[in-house]
Design brief:
The longest helix is centred in the middle third of the chain and has 17 residues, at about 285-300. This protein is α+β, with helices and mostly antiparallel strands and about 650 residues long. The chain is about 35% helix and about 20% strand. It contains 26 helices and 29 strands. The strands form 9 sheets. The protein has a 5-stranded mixed beta barrel. A 5-stranded parallel beta sheet has the order 18-21-24-17-25, with helices on both faces. α11 (about 285-300) packs across α13 (about 335-345) and α22 (about 580-595) packs parallel to α26.
């Protein structure tokens, strides 16, 4: 397609973010153009193949006015690395004899629905094939976008934005060169909308004064969809839009009325399958709710630390259900500060019942953080970290909470200096003893003793960075810990709600010191029974996948028990609503307990995470499982899928995932 006019960079970017569908052009389609054949070699002495596509989905007027042909004929070739990759994957094009190539490409593309993107060049716009659907193409198609929620957001957050109107909603692959959408689809629900566009090309909002209608559609919608891009864009035959309108008129509900006149807790439990079953809901705990409210307020209003609130609640649940919680992320984002604020909200004073242990690259063994007994003199020399003194104090006052923060704990090999604690993490409280020296050894400074009992009143938190100065965690450690990557709130959200975050000099901690408030010590529950059959089945499927590519990897009983404990400890607010949904919690746990093990070289990681090349993502086995119909009964897995895609990018850049 030859450009008639020079294209501005903003339009060029919008085009690159768009998807289209089409079919292989016929000779009849090419009549009236200077093009003669749908597929041919480029020049007499070239191995490169040129092909022409008839576009069957809308081409925005802003784009089509730049084109020579107005009959939606688009051109691609195998000089495109993306196209060559598709053809090699499908028909091993590079290995075919020269005389076979045209026929094989024609056979591959004929009577198929072709999903593609456009690649604007200085003189032409070319076709880059994204995927080929083995389905007979219809006559024309309409686009129905799916909203891209922020990590941690749920379907309830989306519906709140639609019902309240004016709130920004991202339609990732639906830039504003297209007409505003009539429908959007998310997690088995179809919404009939009338949306405003904004200066941001993929940001929309529901118009004031126009109510949204919605209905559950499920399999009926899946039957209409001929192609999809993840959960972000769906191609439906144009003639089926009337069916959707009729169905919405007959079965649709007014979203605003639904939110105004139904009990939100009851609605979430009954009309949203997969949320927390009623018998698994925790009772409202006033002390816990007060603590979480102060924790969030202290971080935001006192320390100006703006993390995603659901990530902060996830951190709290992890502290309740795990001996060790690890906070990961880039340097300088406030990971240590987050842990410190948590301790301060509990009323812990730094240097007394809360200590920060900075880990040095020189640490090689437990003595570096604990100290050692000199067998000749009988003197115990405690490490300058002060860890032993704090643990002795915690043993003495087991009804009070203590906290240890291991700062940058992967600057040195964790399995070396932290080795005694790794074994302790999985033991129940009655058998959890840290050995400092042998009982037969003589120690003359009497405040030290050979063993310290580690009660449930000690919170262990580690912070980690991932760069060239750090070391990897072993699966042995990851099995015993939650790894949380808290995300910062968007600057726009902070600005819009700034009155909520008015600076407060000091927020008083909660007035409780009893350690039982935090730790869930009920280890006698039948933990696995807390999972639904769909959740257990999905974990089996993920385990089998990891085990297929590495016999030493998989999901252990320890991990599954940790996931079940996490889900059963979701706090609720004063009206009985879970502060994060069961679907979100399960998504968080897959990312924290399962995906943390997906690391290493391309041979293991590549098939699992997929391929990222030229801004185009080809999904791997993990995404295929997490987007399956079975998985959708458990969660949308938005957070986990984003992490998988990030790992794919990391693999493409460095050839390795840390």
């Amino acid at each position: 397609m030859r450009l008639l006019n020079k294209m501005n960079p903003e339009l060029e970017k919008k085009i690159k973010d768009s998807y289209f569908v089409g079919r292989l052009a016929t000779e009849e389609d090419l009549s009236g153009t200077f093009l003669d054949r749908p597929i041919k070699f480029i020049g007499e002495n070239s191995d490169d193949i040129q092909f022409h596509i008839k576009c069957l989905s809308p081409i925005p007027e802003e784009v089509s006015k730049h084109l020579t042909f107005q009959n939606k004929i688009l051109t691609g070739n195998t000089r495109s690395r993306q196209n060559l990759k598709i053809f090699n994957n499908k028909i091993n094009l590079d290995r075919l004899f020269f005389t076979e190539r045209i026929e094989k490409v024609k056979e591959l593309l004929s009577d198929k629905l072709i999903v593609f993107k456009l690649d604007p060049k200085p003189e032409f716009i070319y076709v880059d094939i994204a995927k080929i659907e083995n389905i007979k193409p219809g006559t024309s198609y309409s686009l129905i976008p799916g909203p891209s929620l922020k990590i941690g957001e749920s379907i309830e957050d989306l519906e709140t934005k639609l019902a309240k109107k004016g709130y920004p909603i991202t339609l990732k692959y639906y830039p504003n060169i297209f007409d505003p959408p009539e429908f959007i689809y998310f997690e088995d629900y179809l919404y009939q909308v009338d949306m405003n566009q904004s200066m941001n090309p993929t940001t929309y909002s529901q118009k004031d004064g126009v109510d949204v209608r919605f209905m559950k559609i499920g399999d009926d919608f899946a039957d209409m969809v001929h192609a999809r891009i993840d959960g972000d864009l769906y191609f439906v035959e144009l003639n089926r839009l009337g069916d959707l309108r009729d169905k919405m008129n007959d079965e649709g509900k007014n979203l605003t009325e639904h939110y105004s006149y139904t009990d939100p807790v009851e609605d979430h439990l009954e009309s949203r399958p997969g949320q927390i079953p009623e018998d698994n809901l925790n009772a409202f705990n006033k002390n816990e709710f007060e603590f979480l409210s102060k924790f969030l307020k202290k971080a935001q209003n006192q320390y100006r630390l703006f993390y995603n609130e659901k990530d902060m609640i996830s951190f709290h649940i992890s502290v309740k259900t795990n001996m060790l919680t690890i906070i990961g992320g880039m340097s300088g984002t406030g990971k240590t500060q987050l842990a410190k604020i948590y301790g301060e909200t509990l009323g812990l004073e730094l240097g007394k019942r809360m200590i920060i242990v900075p880990i040095s690259p020189s640490y090689k063994e437990p003595n570096d953080i604990l100290g050692f007994l000199n067998p000749s003199t009988g003197v115990y020399h405690e490490s300058e970290t002060g860890l032993v003194s704090l643990l002795l104090e915690a043993e003495k006052y087991s009804d009070r909470t203590f906290m240890v923060i291991f700062d940058e704990m992967n600057l040195s090999q964790v399995e070396h200096w932290f080795s005694p604690f790794i074994s302790l993490l999985e033991l129940d409280e009655d058998n959890r003893y840290l050995t400092l020296f042998s009982e037969q050894d003589r120690c003359i400074n009497g405040q030290y003793k050979s063993k310290i009992k580690i009660h449930n009143n000690v919170i262990f938190v580690g912070t980690v960075n991932y760069d060239e100065t750090t070391t990897e965690f072993s699966d042995r450690l990851l099995d015993r810990a939650n790894v949380i990557y808290p995300r910062k709130m968007s600057f726009l959200d902070i600005k819009k709600n700034y009155s909520k975050y008015e600076k407060i000099t000091e927020i008083e901690p909660v007035s409780m010191l009893n350690a039982s408030f935090l730790k869930n010590t009920d280890n006698e529950k039948d933990i696995l029974n807390l999972l639904t059959e769909e959740e257990a089945s999905l974990l089996d499927e993920l385990h089998a996948l990891l085990h297929t590519y590495d016999r030493q990897r998989g999901i252990s009983f320890r991990v599954v028990n940790g996931i079940a404990r996490f889900i059963s400890n979701i706090p609720v607010n004063e009206v009985g609503e879970p502060m994060i949904s069961r679907k979100e919690a399960f998504d968080f746990q897959v990312s924290q307990r399962v995906l943390s093990k997906v690391k290493g070289i391309e041979t293991f990681v590549g098939p699992l995470v997929g391929d990222y090349r030229d801004s185009s993502y080809e999904e791997g086995e993990l995404v295929k499982i997490l987007t399956s119909e079975r998985a959708k009964q458990v969660s949308s897995f938005h957070y986990s899928i984003e992490i998988i895609k990030q790992k794919a990018k990391e693999l493409a850049l460095y050839g390795y995932v840390q």
